[in-house]
TrEMBL record:
This is LysR family transcriptional regulator. InterPro entries: LysR-type_TF_proteobact-type, LysR_HTH_N, LysR_subst-bd, WH-like_DNA-bd_sf, WH_DNA-bd_sf. It comes from Acuticoccus sediminis. Transmembrane segments: none annotated. The keyword Transcription regulation applies. Belongs to the LysR transcriptional regulatory family.
Length: 319
């Protein structure tokens, strides 16, 4: 039995004096309303109304129930209105898991979101390996690569772009790297996250024929690996080898001359970028506000923008 619905029907019957009138209001049959009131009587163990062919009147127990019934129904309505407010206004905490480079990027824009919604709070967890959203209590998780968990709702919002980089010191003291196959002769710093990270896949941007651009897969190796991009960035800046890192991590180092981008005519395989969340009947407005924010942040970057064409060599590069 739905207690609140039964109480509400009982109150309307007491006000109208008719099961049929309440049934017409609700768009249901008269027996349906009668069953709701009967179920309430059985629940309370007391007769609440006197039924006759002319009218419906309340018993003493029914009259005594009116005030507390109204209080309960009004309280339930208040809860429903409050829940509706939560759904329509970003209020409360959103727990968000994001891969490290993207997490730093998001943190750089988060003040805009928090300034827009003063009652919204964000807990940002940065991790490169996805977990269980429901068990860990996350509202959202940004994931790279294809999603294997069919139980999640996934929204694609862009793609990743990674650059092959090394320090000027490393480049000067080692063999030149002119083709992806040359990487097999170098110390490469591997970032173990998704499957075979020691196999790097490239597309030749200067060799696009009728059958598409040429693809190259290279098995790389080295004496150092790390599961954190900041550690890899530090190692490559110190000249320990060649790394493959998100443009978000290395762009400033490239512009400042601390790192050099290698193989610009070859695009490293891009990974799809998804926002994932557990299925539910209604998505809280605070969660939807964060999703919209993430989409804006990712789509504002040309190298992550959804639907952006494959990369191209720098303007000063001759194919």
């Amino acid at each position: 039995m739905d207690l609140i619905t039964s109480l509400h029907s009982f109150l309307r019957v007491s006000e109208t004096g008719s099961f049929s009138a309440v049934a017409a209001e609700r768009g249901v049959t008269q027996p349906a309303i009668s069953r709701q009131v009967s179920a309430l009587e059985e629940y309370l163990g007391a007769r609440l109304v006197q039924r006759s062919t002319q009218a419906v009147t309340l018993t003493d127990e029914g009259r005594n129930l009116l005030a507390p019934a109204r209080d309960l129904v009004e309280a339930a309505e208040g809860l429903r209105n409050l829940a509706d407010q939560w759904l329509r206004k970003p209020v409360g905490l959103v727990r968000l898991a994001v891969p490290a480079p993207l997490g730093v990027h998001v943190a750089g824009h988060i003040s805009t979101l928090l300034a827009q919604y003063e009652e919204l709070s964000i807990e940002l967890i940065m991790r490169d390996r996805p977990g269980n959203l429901v068990e860990e209590g996350f509202d959202l998780e940004v994931r790279l690569g294809e999603i294997e968990d069919a139980s999640l709702i996934c929204r694609r919002v862009g793609s990743t772009t990674r650059h092959i980089v090394a320090s000027p010191e490393y480049i000067d003291r080692n063999l030149p790297i002119l083709h992806p196959l040359d990487l097999a002769l170098h110390h490469c710093i591997v970032h173990p996250r998704y499957g075979r990270e020691d196999v790097w896949h490239f597309t030749d941007l200067c060799d696009a024929g009728e059958r598409g651009a040429a693809e190259h897969a290279v098995t790389v190796r080295g004496r150092f690996s790390a599961d954190n991009p900041a550690a890899i960035q530090t190692a490559v800046l110190k000249g320990h080898g060649v790394a493959c890192l998100s443009h978000l991590v290395v762009q400033e180092d490239i512009e400042a001359g601390r790192l050099r981008r290698l193989l610009p005519q070859f695009e490293f395989r891009r990974q799809p970028l998804y926002i994932t969340y557990a299925p539910g009947r209604r998505l809280a407005y605070r969660t939807r506000a964060v999703i919209d924010f993430l989409v804006r942040v990712f789509q504002s970057d040309p190298l992550m923008k959804l639907g952006s064409p494959p990369g191209s060599p720098p303007a000063n590069h001759v194919c």
